[in-house]
Amino acid sequence: MNLSELKDKIESYLKDHDYMTVATAAPDATPRAATVSYACEGMTIYFSTGPSTEKYKNIESKPAVACTVDDDEKDWSKIKGVQLTGFATIVSDEEEQSAAFDLLASKFPQMKDMPPKVRPKIIRIDPKAAYFIDNTVSFGHRDKAEF
């Protein structure tokens, strides 16, 4: 598979799923992983979180993140998923915040019911590298795309 096909495969997999695990690091380098709901536009990924959460505070101080998206598969030979690394940004531009909120709300309609004063902050992840994991090819098989 060529690089363009791989990127399309990764993007399609991300669009077909709702939850990912985001790993961050605290200022003292303590790792933290959290499951978030997300939406993406191309390979740009958005999620929301409260400003008092550990992941938000970690992203403020150390924007490097690692993420995984996968299916809950008991047969290891059938596991597929995406692993990616990149940088997270707390979205401050009002136009991007609004567009990302609408993107998330189109996937998770309950977001529209949140009062504006308690709406969470929008985080954007810009991937630098992504791996498509496909154990149906062979155990531990990974194809890498860089962005």
Please give the structural blueprint.
Blueprint: H1 3-15, E1 19-25, E2 31-41, E3 44-49, H2 54-61, E4 64-70, E5 80-90, H3 94-107, E6 121-134, E7 142-146
Antiparallel strand pairs: 1-2, 1-4, 2-3, 3-6, 4-5, 5-6, 6-7
Q: What are the main properties of this structure?
A:
147 residues; alpha+beta; Pnp Oxidase, Chain A; 6-stranded antiparallel β-barrel; globular
* Strand content bin: 35-45%
Radius of gyration: 16 Å
Query: Would you tell me the overall average pLDDT?
Result: 95
Count of domain modules: 1
Largest sheet: 6 strands, antiparallel, barrel
- So, the CATH homologous superfamily? Electron Transport, Fmn-binding Protein, Chain A
Helicity level, as a percent range?
Answer: 10-25%
In CATH, what is the class? Mainly Beta
Describe it for me?
The chain is of the alpha+beta class. The chain has one domain (3-139): Pnp Oxidase, Chain A (Roll), CATH 2.30.110. It is 24% helix and 41% strand. The chain contains 3 helices and 7 strands, in the order H-E-E-E-H-E-E-H-E-E. It has helices spanning 3-15, 54-61, 94-107, and strands at residues 19-25, 31-41, 44-49, 64-70, 80-90, 121-134, 142-146. Strands 1-2-3-6-5-4 form a 6-stranded antiparallel barrel. A hairpin with a 7-residue loop joins strand 6 and strand 7 (142-146). The longest helix has 14 residues, at 94-107. The two termini are 17 Å apart. The model has no long low-confidence stretch (mean pLDDT 95).
